[in-house]
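Q: Here's a chain of 479 amino acids. Please give me its 3D structure as tokens.
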Amino acid sequence: MTECKEQPLWFQDLGSRKMVADFSGGTLSSDGGVLLLRQVDANLGLTGALSECFRDTRDPVYVDHTVRQLLAQRIYGLALGYEDLNDHNDLRRDPLLAAACEKTDPLGLARFNPAHRGVALAGASTLNRLELSCNRHSRCHKLAHDPAQVEACLLKMGARCLPKRAVEVVVDLDAMGHLVHGLQEGRHYSAYYGDYCYLPLYVFAGDIPLWAQLRGSDRDGAEGVVPALEKIVRAIRRRCRRARIIVRGDSGFCREEIMAWCEGQEEVYYCLGLPKNPVLVEQLGPALAKAQARWCLCGAAQVREFAEFEYQTVRSWSRSRRVIGKAEVTAQGQNPRFLVTNLPVRGFKEDGDASRFSPARLYEEFYCQRGEMENVLKQQVLDLEADRMSSHHLASNQLRLWLATFGYLLLERMRSLGLAGTELAQATAGRVRLKLLKVAGQVRVSVRRVYVQLSSAYPLQELFRLCHRRLGAWRPDTG
């Protein structure tokens, strides 16, 4: 009797022709762009360096998947849009992903276990043991990682992506609530988010991730920033020896210890939001009155005036600091905002722009640019599901956050280097994935080569070729 899975699928006729489909196409893949991810990974040395952070105590005789191959499979899967471990129960049959993960037998015909032959990659259970090995000690969980080494690896990989001759590096801080839907270790109720969540600390330099630290939401959002900055500034200095560093963040990071630490470092500056209070609003009073008068006269949607003054709190600040006030009036009323900074009033001499840090330009052209980091975090959450904290253990969820961040770093390098000046130069990670990675291809494996025949109908062939050519010429160590 013919099995149902072998029966053809009949669709509506196309004119005089019958429309028939079946699943006899052979070794096909819908993720042809994974080869570009592999190219970025090879140049950056990401999965190779990350695998050194793991301790593999398995018996090599029975090992089909090395730590590097497991990490590559997980990170590439995240970049390709497969955020759940369960996805890999089907994805493990993809011969192109297997080839990208350095499987010399991409069809899995030489697997140790006869039951697994024909399937080259690891399943969900094996990848799950990779994530749980720091929390469980059994004969199955033998792939523990060192969190400090993984943290340092992310920082090293991110710093390698900075241009060596950079004159200035702006470091953006942000804390973003990631909701949890279970009894995860370290969860806490947050009144701000109205639910149980984690509150990870993210640090980016432009679009490049440098830090992703998972924390409970039962603490101040600025907790742990100074120790993180010490490591980040040290890593940036090793890469960009002459660059000045500017720390930028919202009012949640306006803390004495952060500002005092920056002031005690050479060529480290800060520009932070400052929560308003009656004293600050009083200082901004003349500018608010002027803005109100202008708004009444011209009837514009909004009117802004800026003021600059020295300010010191009664107890919490150790010194007086430069404060910029924005006096804004709209149809909804007055909207005063403040920031505090130690950036020089007349700018830096080497920039040749004495008005760069004048009150209006500092607020509108520099401080407001921190909103771009929030767009990056949205890509982390919406495109790579970095907030998928479904493991019970805090250490496992931290590892998942790191893996998603590494996946974003690969996509960011592909976009910044391979797609610069093209229609996808400013695209989100999700759009880059859709346009460049989701390419159908047939995989033919012979003794001498793995031949991938990408779809002839793919509309962005020239863009794909351009990206491949640029990534092949990229060498991180040259800057």
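Q: Can you summarize the key feature?
A: The mean pLDDT is 92.
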